[in-house]
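name: query_chain
kind: protein
chains: 1
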Amino acid sequence: MKDKAILRSGALWLGAVLGTGLLFFLYHYLEVLTQGETQNPLRPFISELTGALGAGLLFFPVRALVRKLPLTRAGGPRRLSVYLAVYLAALAAAGAAATTFMWGLRSILYPLAGLGAYDYGVMPLRYLMELPLQVIWFTGVVAGVHVWDALAAARQRELRAAQLEGSLARAELRNLRLQLQPHFLFNALNTISATMYDDPRAADEMLAQLAELLRASLRTAQTDEVPLHEELAVLACYLAILRARFGDRLTVSIDADPATTDALVPSMILQPLVENAVRHGNAERLGRGTVAIRARRDGGHLILEVEDDGNGERPAAPGTGLGLSGTAERLHLLYGNDQTFTAGNGGGAGGTGFRVRATLPLRYAEERP
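structure:
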């Protein structure tokens, strides 16, 4: 990766040198032609390419100077004056080096190209003549490096902010999981305790299923999303606990579209919703009830529903209970505005029943961001 970045930077530098040299060559060569005169194109070609090469080579020490002594960190006027003095000295040194480099290289290339000896004129005046262009070049490099580094720093800050935001969101998701799991565990243990003396065999079966459910929960503890079929397998352990407690007095139906079983859903999303349906539906109130679990596809979204046959009432407004509010908050953290979560009266006669519906973006494991 580092080698590729170096090659890419080297190719960009070489392209900039050649492009600048060719543009200046075209300008000067065409200028002669517009005057109705003729000139061997090798003369401006060698002159402009060597000039561009000299500027390209001096770019690196000037960039190093700017990053060593950036004007944005000069601080007070005294330090700024020192920095400016260093920059002026660097400009004089870079200008002299560039002029000397061009004179030396052209003195070698001109004879090799059959152009005879190269005459750069009176050298003291030549150094002075080249200085204005070198001031423009030097100022452009200094300003360009400052702007480039400022943009790079801003990108790094944005990246760090995004990483921090993602870390905070993941931490909040883990915290919600930690809230929901003890909540469920205490309820399950209370259920087992209430069953232990009346039906020891059922209590023993519930303990076995609870252990399996806890193992499944640990397997997904560091995973925010799992395929729906895995989530249904974990839910099956919880349903086994409910069957051991209620027997045939509780009917649970699962209707999952086969096209959705590999879709990603938040891990342990269904268990608190089913628990809520049992605790506040007819199963808990009247000792007999029905819970329906549905999963279907709607365009680019997955719809999950959990509905009971209770009276449609809840002791608190939707979203205030731990199971419902925790689920709603998890969905918001995972999917932002690309999700909806509703809870209210179901489709039973007279507005009976209570339905919870979650609409998620339909994604699969290979599409996980």
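note: The first strand starts at residue 225 and ends at 227.
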